Description:
The complex is a heterodimer of chains A (170) and B (198).
Chain A: H1 2-15, H2 19-29, H3 32-49, H4 59-73, H5 80-98, H6 103-115, H7 119-129, H8 134-141, H9 145-168
Helix pairs in contact in A: 2-3, 2-4, 2-7, 3-4, 3-5, 4-7, 6-9, 7-9, 8-9
Chain B: H1 3-11, H2 19-63, H3 69-98, H4 106-129, H5 131-147, H6 153-197
Amino acid sequence: MGAGRQGDEAFAAWLAPHLGALRRVARGFAEAADQHDLMQELMLAVWRARPRFRAESADATFVYRVAHNTALTWKRGENRRRRRREAIEAEMALRLTAGHAPETSLLDRLYDAIRSLPPLDRSLILLSLDGQPYAQIARLHGLSETNVGARLSRVRRRLTDLVEERDDGL
Amino acid sequence: MDFERLEQAWRSQANTPDQQAQAYLMEQLMHALKARRRGEILFLAIPVAAMTLFTAIAVRSMLSGQTDLGREWGALAMLVVCWAVLAAVMIAALMAKRAPRDGSPVRQTLETMLAANRRARVNFRIFWMSLPVFLVPMLVAVFQLNEVGKTTDRNMGQMLLVFGVALGTSVGWNALRFFKVLKPEQRRLEGLLKEYDQ
């Protein structure tokens, strides 16, 4: 058990720099009530996959690959009532610390718009917003760079429209 | 509004968990890992402990001469089938854990998952067809115990009721899993793969 705990702590330290990326994926794929659930799924998926990590790819690339794989195939939990309570508590904890940045409201609308996109477009735009180059996104998804570029141009236009629509609705 | 404004918001501090939020997420992670480890131990320990107990009782009964294998081989066959199923379930769980799906592109992963889903649905049908594999040793064992005088007719009825309920629950559980998990998953994966071709 001691070795297991040490292993968990080492894993947690390795994952710490990528928690932000995982959180953004969770917000991009799940509604507020389910984000806590998906975030846990993402962290566990990376933990399960870690033994297969080979140093030939960057840590971030590996984490993105596992996270997007998991998020795309993630299914909302069944024990909804308990999870909802936990999710609200978790969201509150993160909100309090997210603070009063003027960007918060715009980000809420942006995430809301991202969640309304088809799953593949959602994944592409999340990777692009996180600064992943086209070549990397193409490799991660098994698409050509041209295809990624064309899709992202369309998704960016759509996303801007969706955020504006939500702005008008306020 | 232009897209650059959205990118700017994306890169802002508001979109990155601060130290307090990171600490909270870390706590959640450690909690999830602990729960997962406990779950894995229980998944392995409970059925193995139960089967070991039944096997120990059977071995003790055979060694003390209380069991005549020539006339009561049905119970032994039932035990062997149960151990075989348990081993198959454990191996399948280990193989699923080792599946090297994280190094391949997402599209390939989805195709692999769809193939696994197809295999699981086929396995479900095999399970239906292989019900006699469970039923025959069970009925033979119950009737043999009655024949050698170890159970009364009433005991035999009760045993059949208990085993029948257990088997019925298993069939019901599998049917539920087929229609509530495997079929929706198949539709979801096919939908996702279709997106790649659009």
